[in-house]
Amino acid sequence: MAIASIDVDPQKTFTPLCPDELPVHDGDTLGAALNAQAKLADLRILTKDAHPANAIWVVDSHAHMLEPLTYPNADLTWVAHAVPGTAGFETIPGLPKVTEYDHVIWKGIEPDLHPYGACYHDLQEKLSTGLIEWLSAQNVETIIIGGLATDYCVKTTAMQLQDTQKFKVIVNLSACRGIALETVEEACDAMSKIGIIICSDLDTIQTHL
Known about the structure:
It is built from five helices and ten strands; from the N terminus they run E-H-E-E-E-E-E-E-H-E-H-E-H-E-H. Strand 4 (about 70) and strand 5 form a beta hairpin. The protein is of the alpha/beta class. It has helices spanning about 30-40, 130-135, 150-165, 180-195, 200-205; strands at about 1-10, 45-50, 60, 70, 75, 80, 105, 140-150, 170-175, 195-200. The chain has one domain: 3-Layer(aba) Sandwich (Rossmann fold), CATH 3.40.50.
Protein backbone atom coordinates (compact mmCIF):
# COMPACT_ATOMS: atom_id res chain seq x y z
CA MET A 1 0.00 0.00 0.00
CA ALA A 2 1.26 3.47 -0.90
CA ILE A 3 1.94 6.59 1.14
CA ALA A 4 0.87 9.97 -0.24
CA SER A 5 2.05 13.43 0.78
CA ILE A 6 -0.23 16.43 0.22
CA ASP A 7 0.96 20.03 -0.01
CA VAL A 8 -2.21 21.98 0.82
CA ASP A 9 -2.34 25.44 -0.79
CA PRO A 10 1.33 26.41 -0.27
CA GLN A 11 0.79 29.63 -2.20
CA LYS A 12 2.23 33.11 -1.89
CA THR A 13 -1.27 34.49 -1.30
CA PHE A 14 -1.15 32.94 2.18
CA THR A 15 2.23 34.41 3.09
CA PRO A 16 3.87 37.74 3.91
CA LEU A 17 5.01 37.81 0.28
CA CYS A 18 1.47 39.04 -0.52
CA PRO A 19 0.64 41.23 2.48
CA ASP A 20 -2.56 42.62 0.94
CA GLU A 21 -4.08 39.17 0.51
CA LEU A 22 -4.26 36.58 3.33
CA PRO A 23 -0.77 36.46 4.85
CA VAL A 24 -0.05 33.74 7.39
CA HIS A 25 3.02 34.32 9.55
CA ASP A 26 6.01 32.37 8.20
CA GLY A 27 3.82 30.83 5.49
CA ASP A 28 6.59 31.37 2.95
CA THR A 29 9.06 29.24 4.95
CA LEU A 30 7.40 25.84 4.48
CA GLY A 31 9.22 24.70 1.34
CA ALA A 32 11.92 22.65 3.05
CA ALA A 33 9.49 21.02 5.48
CA LEU A 34 7.08 20.04 2.71
CA ASN A 35 9.96 18.61 0.66
CA ALA A 36 11.18 16.60 3.65
CA GLN A 37 7.67 15.29 4.23
CA ALA A 38 7.39 14.21 0.60
CA LYS A 39 10.50 12.06 0.95
CA LEU A 40 8.53 9.76 3.24
CA ALA A 41 5.91 9.19 0.55
CA ASP A 42 5.51 7.38 -2.76
CA LEU A 43 3.24 10.02 -4.27
CA ARG A 44 3.07 13.80 -3.93
CA ILE A 45 -0.06 15.89 -4.42
CA LEU A 46 -0.43 19.67 -4.68
CA THR A 47 -3.62 21.61 -4.03
CA LYS A 48 -4.04 25.24 -5.06
CA ASP A 49 -6.73 27.83 -4.56
CA ALA A 50 -7.68 29.32 -7.92
CA HIS A 51 -10.19 32.10 -7.38
CA PRO A 52 -11.62 34.63 -9.86
CA ALA A 53 -11.23 38.27 -8.89
CA ASN A 54 -15.00 38.79 -9.30
CA ALA A 55 -16.08 36.01 -6.93
CA ILE A 56 -19.30 36.71 -5.03
CA TRP A 57 -17.50 36.52 -1.70
CA VAL A 58 -14.86 39.17 -2.49
CA VAL A 59 -14.79 42.35 -0.37
CA ASP A 60 -12.57 45.38 -0.80
CA SER A 61 -10.79 45.39 2.55
CA HIS A 62 -9.72 43.17 5.43
CA ALA A 63 -12.07 45.14 7.69
CA HIS A 64 -15.03 43.54 5.93
CA MET A 65 -13.72 39.97 5.96
CA LEU A 66 -15.28 36.97 7.72
CA GLU A 67 -18.80 38.36 7.46
CA PRO A 68 -21.35 35.56 7.02
CA LEU A 69 -22.94 34.95 3.64
CA THR A 70 -26.10 33.05 2.75
CA TYR A 71 -24.85 31.47 -0.46
CA PRO A 72 -24.92 27.66 -0.40
CA ASN A 73 -21.23 27.32 -1.32
CA ALA A 74 -19.63 30.53 -0.06
CA ASP A 75 -20.01 31.03 3.65
CA LEU A 76 -17.78 34.02 4.47
CA THR A 77 -16.41 37.16 2.85
CA TRP A 78 -12.72 37.36 1.95
CA VAL A 79 -10.49 39.79 0.11
CA ALA A 80 -9.47 38.67 -3.38
CA HIS A 81 -6.70 36.09 -3.21
CA ALA A 82 -5.05 33.31 -5.21
CA VAL A 83 -6.20 34.81 -8.49
CA PRO A 84 -4.65 32.90 -11.42
CA GLY A 85 -2.06 35.01 -13.21
CA THR A 86 -1.08 36.96 -10.09
CA ALA A 87 1.86 36.48 -7.73
CA GLY A 88 -0.48 35.24 -5.04
CA PHE A 89 -1.47 32.23 -7.15
CA GLU A 90 2.13 31.04 -7.35
CA THR A 91 3.56 28.44 -4.97
CA ILE A 92 6.03 29.46 -2.30
CA PRO A 93 9.80 29.30 -2.91
CA GLY A 94 11.53 25.93 -2.84
CA LEU A 95 8.73 23.70 -4.11
CA PRO A 96 8.79 21.64 -7.31
CA LYS A 97 7.19 22.81 -10.52
CA VAL A 98 3.51 21.94 -10.79
CA THR A 99 4.29 19.38 -13.50
CA GLU A 100 6.62 17.53 -11.14
CA TYR A 101 3.79 16.55 -8.79
CA ASP A 102 1.93 13.28 -9.25
CA HIS A 103 -1.48 14.93 -8.98
CA VAL A 104 -2.78 18.50 -8.70
CA ILE A 105 -6.14 19.86 -7.52
CA TRP A 106 -7.23 23.40 -8.35
CA LYS A 107 -10.18 24.54 -6.24
CA GLY A 108 -12.59 27.44 -6.10
CA ILE A 109 -12.35 28.58 -9.71
CA GLU A 110 -16.11 29.13 -10.02
CA PRO A 111 -17.18 32.60 -8.77
CA ASP A 112 -19.87 31.21 -6.46
CA LEU A 113 -17.77 28.43 -4.89
CA HIS A 114 -15.32 28.88 -2.03
CA PRO A 115 -14.32 25.42 -0.77
CA TYR A 116 -11.73 24.93 1.94
CA GLY A 117 -11.03 21.23 1.61
CA ALA A 118 -9.40 19.64 -1.42
CA CYS A 119 -11.86 16.76 -1.78
CA TYR A 120 -14.97 18.64 -2.88
CA HIS A 121 -15.66 21.66 -5.05
CA ASP A 122 -18.66 22.67 -2.93
CA LEU A 123 -19.23 23.27 0.77
CA GLN A 124 -22.09 20.78 0.72
CA GLU A 125 -19.55 18.11 -0.31
CA LYS A 126 -21.59 16.75 -3.19
CA LEU A 127 -19.22 17.48 -6.09
CA SER A 128 -15.97 15.53 -5.84
CA THR A 129 -12.69 16.97 -7.08
CA GLY A 130 -11.57 13.40 -7.75
CA LEU A 131 -8.87 13.44 -5.08
CA ILE A 132 -10.39 10.66 -2.97
CA GLU A 133 -10.96 8.51 -6.03
CA TRP A 134 -7.43 9.10 -7.33
CA LEU A 135 -5.87 8.19 -3.99
CA SER A 136 -7.94 5.03 -3.86
CA ALA A 137 -6.94 4.09 -7.41
CA GLN A 138 -3.28 4.48 -6.42
CA ASN A 139 -3.77 2.09 -3.48
CA VAL A 140 -2.89 4.81 -0.97
CA GLU A 141 -3.27 3.73 2.63
CA THR A 142 -1.54 6.57 4.52
CA ILE A 143 -1.66 10.31 3.82
CA ILE A 144 0.69 12.92 5.29
CA ILE A 145 -0.63 16.48 5.10
CA GLY A 146 1.09 19.85 5.43
CA GLY A 147 0.44 23.34 4.12
CA LEU A 148 -1.63 26.46 4.65
CA ALA A 149 -3.45 27.21 6.74
CA THR A 150 -3.65 24.69 9.59
CA ASP A 151 -6.96 26.02 10.88
CA TYR A 152 -8.75 26.23 7.52
CA CYS A 153 -7.78 24.29 4.40
CA VAL A 154 -5.41 21.81 6.07
CA LYS A 155 -8.00 20.96 8.71
CA THR A 156 -10.86 20.61 6.23
CA THR A 157 -8.86 18.51 3.79
CA ALA A 158 -7.69 16.19 6.56
CA MET A 159 -11.19 15.80 7.96
CA GLN A 160 -12.69 15.09 4.54
CA LEU A 161 -10.13 12.36 3.95
CA GLN A 162 -10.63 10.90 7.42
CA ASP A 163 -14.40 10.86 6.92
CA THR A 164 -13.99 8.38 4.07
CA GLN A 165 -12.62 5.81 6.55
CA LYS A 166 -10.31 4.64 3.76
CA PHE A 167 -7.01 6.19 4.87
CA LYS A 168 -4.73 6.73 7.81
CA VAL A 169 -4.48 10.54 7.92
CA ILE A 170 -1.50 12.29 9.49
CA VAL A 171 -1.15 16.07 9.85
CA ASN A 172 2.46 17.23 9.99
CA LEU A 173 2.50 20.41 12.09
CA SER A 174 6.14 21.07 11.24
CA ALA A 175 5.01 21.62 7.63
CA CYS A 176 1.97 23.75 8.51
CA ARG A 177 1.33 27.31 9.58
CA GLY A 178 -1.89 28.63 11.05
CA ILE A 179 -3.67 31.93 11.35
CA ALA A 180 -3.96 32.10 15.13
CA LEU A 181 -2.79 29.94 18.05
CA GLU A 182 -6.30 29.57 19.44
CA THR A 183 -7.87 28.44 16.19
CA VAL A 184 -4.95 26.10 15.45
CA GLU A 185 -5.47 24.44 18.82
CA GLU A 186 -9.19 24.13 18.13
CA ALA A 187 -8.45 22.64 14.71
CA CYS A 188 -6.03 20.08 16.16
CA ASP A 189 -8.58 19.09 18.81
CA ALA A 190 -11.30 18.67 16.17
CA MET A 191 -9.02 16.57 13.97
CA SER A 192 -7.81 14.40 16.85
CA LYS A 193 -11.36 13.68 17.97
CA ILE A 194 -12.17 11.96 14.68
CA GLY A 195 -8.98 9.90 14.59
CA ILE A 196 -6.55 12.05 12.62
CA ILE A 197 -2.97 11.66 13.86
CA ILE A 198 -1.36 14.99 14.75
CA CYS A 199 2.46 14.96 14.64
CA SER A 200 4.91 17.71 15.49
CA ASP A 201 7.88 16.40 13.49
CA LEU A 202 9.05 13.82 10.96
CA ASP A 203 10.44 11.46 13.59
CA THR A 204 7.00 11.14 15.16
CA ILE A 205 5.41 10.63 11.74
CA GLN A 206 7.74 7.74 10.97
CA THR A 207 6.51 5.85 14.04
CA HIS A 208 3.05 5.79 12.43
CA LEU A 209 4.15 4.58 8.98
